[in-house]
Write a structure and sequence with these properties.
Mean pLDDT: 82
Number of strands: 11
Shape: globular
Strand order of the largest sheet: 3-4-5-2-7-11-8
Largest sheet: 7 strands, mixed
Helix content: 40-55%
Strand content: 15-25%
Radius of gyration: 26 Å
Oligomer: single chain
Number of helices: 13
Length: 404
């Protein structure tokens, strides 16, 4: 490439010298055409290598979030039902954030490292002592986008028996990124970018292999013991660091018939009519900066270890859908805040009280949603009979090539 650029520079220089001499040679059409094209060729040569590289934020937005969304929908048919329902009404789907839980401080710290490699930064800290939980939200500093709500289960505050059971389970399973994934993560941290193939490989290693429970299955007796004291901790043990929910942006649904209405209230009522089981109430005051609603966690099939160390399939609350309506930020005088582009600045954070109640979504057991007459024509999402973490990885990897 250096030789190519040097050759082009020499050609341009020769033409410029010829131009200064006003020779007849410069009056030929071919010569003038070459002179015009040389700078374009030179510019293309200098830009082309960068076009195949992706920065951390680009990997996050173009590959990671679409892949995570696709995996979540594969594991949770209810998500596909909701999205098809919205699209039939002329709306669109934008994901606001997603959440993970883990009792392992090492995994929690590594999640922060992962997110920061993609350009996200810790923005808010939240503590829920009654639930023995604390969380951070990771998001872009300079713009809106998909946010990662990462929760650490403070299990040392539990009873001695439950604490010992969780520590034993952590010894049986410790989530690690593969060696290939670690090499690419380090390269991204050091260089700030990866080529397209490397970026796709890293996303596959993280989304498919890291964001799930690794190692031995959870013991059934451990699940029962922990669930009696903390449904949130039980959910964390079953799912590993996999996302237990994705939150849809109510602001961006853009269903025409809902325009100018209090959308989250209308959405909640309509979803109940369509057969979705919603958590009671809407979190946040009407007209406030943040209102949230959620479904009760859908029952999923998990593989756990029975008394005789055999693999037992059980049905247990797994993942849920969340809906987020963000209002405008206001200054100390109560006036709406605008950004540098004169656009309304929406609240991007989270509220402790809202989050406390949303955590309850995984603590309730219920049946899968039924379908009303209005949605009978919608495509039926296939049920997953195997433990959810064992999705068709090969098919998913092939599909991932198309997510961008």
């Amino acid at each position: 490439m250096k030789e190519f650029c040097s050759l082009n520079c020499s050609v341009i220089d020769s033409f410029l010298r010829a131009l200064n001499t006003k020779s007849a040679f410069m009056k030929t059409p071919i010569t003038l055409l070459l002179l015009l094209l040389a700078p374009v060729t030179l510019a293309f040569a200098s830009v082309a290598p960068d076009q195949s590289s992706l920065s951390g934020p680009q990997i996050w937005e173009q590959l990671f979030v679409p892949a995570l969304h696709k995996k979540f929908a594969m594991e949770m048919p209810e998500a596909r039902m909701f999205e098809e329902w919205v699209k039939l009404k002329g709306g669109r789907i934008i994901i606001d954030h997603g959440g993970t839980r883990t009792p392992d401080p090492r995994v929690h710290a590594f999640i922060t490292r992962l997110a920061m490699a993609f350009g996200l930064k810790p923005q808010g800290q939240y503590r829920f002592p009654d639930k023995h939980l604390k969380a951070i939200d990771l998001q872009f500093e300079d713009r809106n986008g998909f946010k990662w709500f990462s929760t650490l289960v403070s299990y040392k505050g539990f009873s001695p028996k439950v604490r010992a059971a969780i520590e034993e389970d952590m010894g049986r399973t410790y989530n690690r990124l593969s060696e290939k994934g670690m090499d690419l993560l380090i390269k991204l941290e050091e260089e700030g970018q990866l080529n397209d193939r490397e970026a796709r490989t890293l996303v596959k290693e993280v989304v498919l292999k890291f964001l799930k429970r690794q190692g031995a299955p959870l013991k059934q007796k451990t699940l029962k013991m922990v669930a009696n004291e903390s449904p949130e901790a039980a959910n964390a043990l079953l799912l590993g660091p996999g996302f237990n929910h994705l939150a849809y942006s109510v602001n961006d649904l853009n269903v025409p018939e809902w325009y100018s209405l209090e959308v989250i209230e209308l959405l909640t009522s309509m979803m109940e009519r369509e057969g979705f089981t919603m958590m009671p109430g809407i979190q946040g005051e009407s007209g406030g900066v943040l209102r949230q609603a959620s479904t009760q966690a859908a029952p999923m099939i998990f593989g756990v270890e029975g008394r005789e160390r055999e693999l037992v399939k059980i049905e247990y609350p797994g993942k849920y859908l969340e809906f987020v309506q963000r209002g405008p930020e206001r200054d100390e005088a109560g006036e709406i805040v605008f950004d540098q582009y004169d656009m309304i600045k929406l609240f991007r954070g989270f509220i402790d009280e809202n989050a406390f109640n949303i955590y309850e979504s995984t603590g309730r057991s219920r049946k899968a949603p039924t379908r009303s007459a209005a949605t009978e024509a919608m495509p039926q999402a296939p049920e997953i009979d195997e433990p959810h973490q064992h999705i068709d990885a090969e098919a998913f990897i092939e599909d991932l090539d198309d997510v961008a």
